Structure formats: structure tokens, C-alpha cells
Sequence to fold (289 residues):
Amino acid sequence: MGAQQSYIEHGKLGEGQFGVVYKVTIDGQLYALKKLKKTPDLYQTGIMREIRTLQACSDHDNIVKLFDVQMSHDEVNILMEYCDLGTLNDYMIENRPGEETICNFMLDMARGIHYLHDKEIVHRDIKPDNILLVARFLRDPICKIADLGLARFTFPTSRDMATMSSTYYLNTGCGTPLFMAPEVYSGHYTKACDIYSLGMVFYTMHSLQTFNAGTHTLLCPVIPNSSKVFHQASQEQIKRAIATHVSNRQKAALLESMLALKPRVRPGADAVETTISSYKAKPDSCSLA
Fold:
């Protein structure tokens, strides 16, 4: 925990149920400052979980960095990396980037999830609003996974370390419904739920389906020509939805595997990263041909 630091506040970046994120300057450097009220329930669950998770993994390029934690008698301040281009949700809607940029974003996110899963961390709320972007000179922005308040560490249920997370089941239903894996609703799931949610993010990047929530436009993955959302759909309906929006056969096959209704059929994060990296190795692999 760091000592209290003085800062210049530049306005809100976002607001949630338990706190507010501000854009601030400290010693001339921009940061994001998450200010949370220290209530008994929140302190025991969300705050400390997010801090522990960020401390364990914020040294990765595709995870938002934690710089400091400041506590007072009634508040917890989490000082984090400032991501100047905002959320993936807003960036996709406003810029509609081409296939090469989309491939780069997919690879960034896959690397971040692979790193979390190697650390035995399940994010549990992967969605476009929880992916932040940072500008880079003469290069595509870099994606960073954020908002780890629902993340959980997993632990082995046997002495066989190879089965650590495939046999450890989480049972708290949480996340954002449109991006949640079907098994999360049953309260019996593993880190494969993140692979499904990541597949939903990849799908929305291609479909660009949206709906308006007040003044905010959100990416909204739905089955074309149907009232069903993905977790209610059959595997065949999911396959047709992907085919409608993803012309590249390799990429469509990856999304189909990630959105498999049976968790054990889905690829691991390492395989997702490897598959997307193989697209990058081929000059025409990110095209829609």
C-alpha cells in the first residue's frame, strides 16, 4: 500500500455499482484512479480480489497495470494505467477497423487471457467494455484486459497439476449475460467460460451488432433472424450466425470451437493464441477472402 498522493482530477472515465474511475495526473503523468467505498462486504470480496489479481498479473503487456493502492478509513483508491483510447466497445463502433487491426486485437486479447489462465486466474467478465486500448505510434492500438473485480484464482482438486483448472469448478453465477458461457448459468463451470466469452467478443467485432442503452451504444451479440441470444441457441444456430458475419474459414472455425456449448470441447487459451498467431504469419490470412 502506498502513502496518499496528491493528484489533479480531470473528470470521470467510468462509473460502476461500487465506485468511480477518474482520469488524474500525478507528477505530470496520466493515470486512471478507481475510488471505491470501503464497505464490509465489498472490502472482503471485490476490492481485495481485484487488488490481489492485479498484483499477480499486471506485469503483462495485455493486462491493465496496477501502480499503487491507497487506503483510508472509508475508501480504497486503486491507481492504474491510463488507457487513452477507451474501450474496445466504443473503438469498434466509432472506427470500424479493418481485418488486419481486428486480428491484432484478437491476438492481444488471447495473449492476455492465456497469461491469466497460466496464473490460474479466471476473469469471468470478458466483454468489449472490459477491454481497454492504448495508442501506439505508427502501429495499431494495443488491447489490455481490465476490470478484474470478478476474477477468481482457481485451486487444484487433485495432486495432478495437469488437471488443476479442468477439474476445479466455480459455482457463482456472475458476468454480463450476453457474453456469459451457458454453463455459468448452471453454477458449475471452469476457466473455459472465459474462452466462450472471448469468442463472443470476437464475434461482435465482426458482426458489429448494436443496441442503444440510453445514450450509450453497446455491441450486442445476437443470433441473426432470431429472438434467441447465444447461450439459448443450438450449436447449429451458432454456426450459422458465425458464417453470416465471418467469411474467413479459418477464423470461423476458431470461433465455432470457442463458442462450443460443451466446455471441454473448447480450445485452451494457449491454442487460441497459437491459432491467431498463425493468421498473422500468413500475409493474406486476415482478409475476408
In short: The longest strand covers residues 29-37. The chain has two domains: 8-81, 88-280. The chain has a mean pLDDT of 86.
